[in-house]
Design goal:
The complex is a heterodimer of chains A (280) and B (424). By secondary structure, chain A is mostly helical. Chain A has helices at residues 44-72, 78-99, 105-129, 138-155, 167-182, 188-204, 215-231, 235-259, and strands at residues 34-35, 266-267. Chain B has an 8-stranded mixed beta sheet with strand order 3-4-2-1-5-6-7-8, sandwiched between helices. A 6-stranded parallel beta sheet of chain B has the order 11-10-9-12-13-14, with helices on both faces. Classes of the chains: A mainly alpha (280), B alpha/beta (424).
């Protein structure tokens, strides 16, 4: 600094420019910071559609629960349930084959064989199935079933990736709840029909997602079906279900959409670099 | 002014690494300048109690076992009596904590502020903001640094990162880079003659963060090419171990490069110069994020040309004549390596001893210790904050977490009063 001029501050570590260690010029400090880069914002319609997926799954769980109650109180005969499911299965299959994926004859035959095998084995094992958790008290059974249905709802695939999503855990939780609930029946045919219902509603119904044009409409239909069935059972449960569905399908998307305005992400030179995978 | 300084961190000898060597070297240089330094760390296996290292550096290995990632479980009540006892009996004037990942350091800073001692914290690494673990860690860092007198970061990018994470005032953060022992890392006596082989060396942990996926892609492309008019080929030596080592082995098998690529495995820090850096002409570093990167400075000190990704604090470390900057992509790294190899063949690069001289003047431990001493003097000269001010600093750290941490701070204060009463 012999010529009297103050040297310019440079962002380097190897030269001593005469400035104290804790000095950074205000214009250089955080100069390279970028806020809200590559921000993904969702429209209100997308928020409602996404929430409708969750609402659909919740409605299916409620319908399952209602069917269990009806089977228990003999309002619904197991044979009726099985025939209805078979009809819906045939309709769904034809729609699936015609709209979504072309299946060869051998593929179709393999599918029919799987269904046949499952039905035979399920029916043969249902006397064992409904005795499995026979000795446990009803309250415990109900709480176990409900908690595993909750786990099913938490780990279901709603169309978005998250670490908690695992179709294996969700399907197993649903089947576990069926095994718990099946023990409350007196006849093994009811147990078998409940098992078929659970496989139908938790494995096959989610496959119908690409068939339906609008998730909102289907979620509305399913929700109204679920609530009308629930109204035949008990009113407090109906109110709770209505509250839960309203929160999930209406309140949550609106809140999410509003809170997006508060998003603030910070990017800068300290970020871990993303490897470019462009071809050479 | 002669001070008694307590360096506290989870990372110390017998563990080897950047933070560990930083603590040891700075302590030695401070002892040389006349201060008294002690180091507090957790137990390593059987190594518990008080040990003495070179120049009467007293090391306390506290009887606490590491819990996760070589750090102790942050239960404040477990370490508080130990730390308080050490700080009071040794008549410590200043507490210096190292590394944001070390929970013992944060606890020591807390105890230091409770005993009304000046505290300094050195942050050695960069951290993100977006995922849940980052948010929790940054919140804890904010409370930890709320009452710390001064912070030291190892690069300007590190300073920006720390200020954003913990909302400290930028004037209370100093930038003091790390250093390298340029005597230990010196070029080989006999300069390597480039006849037909140029050797590129790589020395890092083989994990995703160090960008080894990119190296695996680039390596076969470079090995296939001939340089210097078709008479020179490029060989590789790779030191280090990690989960991605299998990628290298597969790549060598697939392209038949057993004669061209040597995998040395894990090397001790003391062996790095003789077994790796002395045998190379170019050092390749492809880290995806790095606060300072001592490896490239060690390589420059040994006279190698450096090819490195320009991430984090790396652009601030070496001037352009010693380093070739590339982007973290296969094409860019390949182009950078080709340029470096051609320059090595034509001799168009600085003399190895020039690199060593540069590093010894720009990055030496005595300079680091002198600058750290200046920070200590500033900090000791400041007036101590009253308990009410310190609790207020904690309270204002957050809407929910602030009051909780403030109450925890007060509870620790009363715990210390209780311990004082018990001892009297």
């Amino acid at each position: 600094m012999s010529n009297g001029k103050v040297p310019k501050w440079r962002k380097t570590l190897y030269e001593d420019n005469g400035y104290p260690d804790n000095y950074t010029p205000p214009e250089c400090f955080l100069a390279a910071i970028e806020k809200n880069k590559n921000l993904l914002l969702y429209s209100l319609w997308e928020c409602f559609s996404g929430a409708a997926e969750v609402g659909k799954e919740m409605s299916v769980v409620i319908i399952f629960w209602c069917c269990y109650k009806f089977l228990k109180t003999d309002l619904l005969q197991p044979e009726t349930l099985l025939v209805t499911m078979l009809g819906l299965l045939v309709v769904g299959c034809t729609m699936f084959i015609s709209r979504v994926r072309k299946v060869t004859f051998t593929g179709l035959l393999a599918g029919i064989k799987t269904i046949f095998l499952f039905t035979i084995i399920g029916f043969a094992l249902s006397p064992v199935l409904y005795k499995l958790t026979d000795t446990i008290s009803t309250d415990t059974i109900h709480s176990m079933a409900l908690s595993s249905l909750l786990i099913h709802l938490l780990t279901s695939d709603y169309g978005m990736y998250a670490p908690i999503v695992s179709w294996q855990i969700s399907l197993n939780a649903a089947v576990f709840s069926t095994v718990c609930l099946a023990s409350r029946f007196d006849h093994h045919l009811s147990a078998f029909s409940l098992l078929c219902l659970s496989v139908f509603s938790f494995l096959l119904v989610p496959l119908s997602r690409p068939l339906l044009p609008s998730p909102l409409l289907s979620s509305l239909l399913l929700a109204s079906a679920a609530l009308s069935l629930l109204s035949c059972i008990s009113t407090p449960q109906l109110c709770l279900a209505l509250l839960a569905l309203a929160t999930v399908q209406i309140a949550c998307p609106v809140m999410f959409h509003r809170l997006q305005a508060d998003k603030m992400t910070i990017h800068g030179p300290w970020d871990e670099a993303v490897i470019f995978t462009a071809p050479q | 002014m002669v001070l008694t300084i307590a360096m506290v961190s989870d990372f110390f000898y017998p563990n080897m690494g950047g933070v560990e060597s930083h603590i040891f070297q700075v302590s030695q240089c401070l002892i040389e300048r006349g201060h008294r330094v002690l180091v507090v760390t957790h137990a390593y296996g059987d190594r518990v109690g008080v040990r003495y290292m070179t120049n009467m550096l007293k090391v306390f290995y506290l009887p606490i076992m590491p819990f996760y990632n070589k750090s102790v479980l942050p239960t404040i009540v477990c370490s508080l009596p130990y730390l308080r006892h050490i700080l009071l009996t040794e008549k410590v004037d200043l507490v210096h904590g190292h590394s944001a990942f070390s929970s013992l350091a944060h606890e020591a800073l807390l105890v230091g502020t409770l005993l009304n001692l000046p505290t300094v914290f050195t942050d050695h690494s960069l951290f993100g903001f977006s995922d849940a673990s980052a948010i929790v860690t940054n919140t804890f860092l904010k409370f930890s640094l709320a009452n710390t007198s001064h912070t030291i970061c190892v690069s300007h990018t590190g300073k920006e990162n720390t200020v954003l994470r913990s909302s400290v005032v930028p004037e209370r953060v100093s930038v003091i880079p790390n250093a390298v022992d340029s005597v230990a890392f010196r070029p080989p006596k006999v300069r390597r003659n480039i006849r037909s082989v140029v050797t590129v060396v790589l020395g890092s942990r083989l994990v995703y963060r160090k960008g080894v996926d990119l190296v695996v892609e680039v390596l076969p492309k470079i090995c296939r090419k001939k340089f210097g008019g078709g008479r020179v080929r490029v060989d590789f030596i790779i030191a280090g171990d990690g989960p991605k080592r299998i990628l290298f082995e597969e790549m060598i098998e697939k392209h038949g490069l057993q004669a061209r690529v040597v995998m040395l495995g894990e090397l001790q820090h003391s062996e790095m110069r003789d077994k790796l850096l002395a045998k190379g002409d170019i050092f390749l570093n492809t880290s995806l994020t790095e606060a300072f990167c001592m490896a490239i400075v060690e390589a420059a000190s040994c006279g190698l040309s450096v090819v490195s990704t320009a991430v984090g604090g790396i652009p601030e470390v070496l001037p352009d004549q010693f380093i070739y900057f590339v982007q973290p992509s296969v094409g860019s790294i390949k182009a950078g390596l080709e340029r470096a190899v051609e320059d090595v063949i034509t001799g168009d690069r600085p003399d190895p001893w020039e690199g060593n001289c540069f590093v010894s003047s720009a990055f030496n431990w005595r300079n680091v210790a002198a600058r750290t001493e200046r920070v200590y003097e500033t900090v000791c000269g400041k007036e101590r904050q009253r308990l009410a001010t310190r609790v207020r600093n904690m309270w204002e750290g957050g809407t929910v977490a602030g009051p909780i941490m403030a109450m925890l701070y007060l509870a620790c204060h009363y715990f210390i009063l209780l311990l004082d009463w018990c001892e009297s």
